[in-house]
Write a structure and sequence with these properties.
2 domains; single chain; globular; mainly alpha; MetI-like fold; 75% helix
């Protein structure tokens, strides 16, 4: 019936007027302008990235003239290639170190914070929630400058610039992501599974561990992926809190090199960051789909069933 109504509406609209005016008055016409604007925006956004990736495989030193395909700036050049340049290799290691440690610490803390905010009510809970959201919406440059002044003046005897200070800054900034994601998942779950587990004899801790946490796995893994992807290309916080060149991650190296006379190895470094980010998001999405599919197919109460069987 809906298709018939659409066809009749199209026929009635085409009966009135002619030419361009009739086409503009037709509410069932194809959204040509919207589709064109969308494709133009995608081209404007993606084309520079594709060009940067392409020139990371350039055979020559030029970053504007294509001179043939080569892996020179990845592994071929013995001195300037991405994986042969000691400074770039150190920056890759530092980026991965900061990303993994931040992810491992921030996500569990954010998960516990989200559960606490979900159970905690009253004015203190609202204050804690506002503090969490405040760090989420605060411009990163303000957070970076504030932490730099804090660590170099008030806490200079306890926290030194470098990897430790960078981790504290990144964890502070990234903590809000798992809190928001896990809280959104908690709102869709409700307290029913934990109450059912406790009705069957589980303690509150057992109900949390065996009934609630399995339901939170999709949100937790999504938080891991987003935190890793957002940390590996962070620039502002890690730049302010870096000490020596050994503590500068790949994003800072790319920024510093781009202001000089860079080789296509900089494009290779940027491509490496893009691939790492896409891989983290892809793995997180696949794990999310696997756990979500299992819960939709009736495995959502597996923790409660396992407790009963135990």
């Amino acid at each position: 019936m809906s298709e018939i109504a659409i066809e009749r509406g199209a026929e009635r609209s085409t009966e009135r007027g002619s030419g361009l005016g009739r086409w503009l008055r037709n509410p069932w016409r194809r959204p040509v302008f919207l589709a064109g604007f969308t494709w133009a925006y995608l081209a404007w956004s993606i084309l520079p990235v594709l060009i940067a990736i392409l020139f990371s495989f350039n055979a020559g030193r030029s970053r504007s003239v294509w001179q043939g395909f080569s892996m020179r700036w990845w592994t071929g050049d013995p001195n300037d290639a991405l994986f042969h340049d000691p400074a770039l290799r150190q920056a890759i290691v530092q980026s991965l170190r900061l990303s993994f440690i931040t992810m491992i610490i921030a996500v569990p803390l954010g998960t516990m914070f989200a559960i606490a905010l979900d159970r905690w009510h009253g004015r203190p809970a609202k204050t804690a929630n506002f503090g969490m959201l405040f760090s989420f919406v605060m411009p990163e440059i303000i957070l970076g400058v504030s932490l730099y002044l804090l660590f170099t003046n008030l806490f200079k005897g306890f926290v030194h610039l470098g990897t430790g200070a960078q981790l504290l800054g990144l964890i502070t900034f990234q903590l809000s992501y798992p809190v928001i994601i896990v809280r959104a998942r908690l709102l869709t779950i409700g307290p029913e599974y934990e109450e059912a587990a406790m009705d069957l004899g589980a303690t509150p801790g057992q109900a949390l561990w065996r009934a609630l946490l399995p339901l939170l796995f999709p949100a937790i893994f999504a938080s891991f992926a987003i935190t890793f992807a957002d940390t590996i290309d962070d620039f502002v916080t890690v730049n302010y809190l870096a000490s020596t060149a050994a503590s500068q991650p790949l994003s800072v190296k790319i920024y510093s090199a781009a202001r000089g006379s860079p080789t296509p190895a900089v494009n290779a470094a940027a491509t490496f960051m893009l691939i790492s980010t896409m891989m983290a998001i892809g793995v997180g999405f696949l794990i999310y789909r696997v756990f979500s599919r299992g819960q939709r197919s009736g495995e959502a109460g597996a923790g409660v069933t396992d407790f009963v069987n135990a």
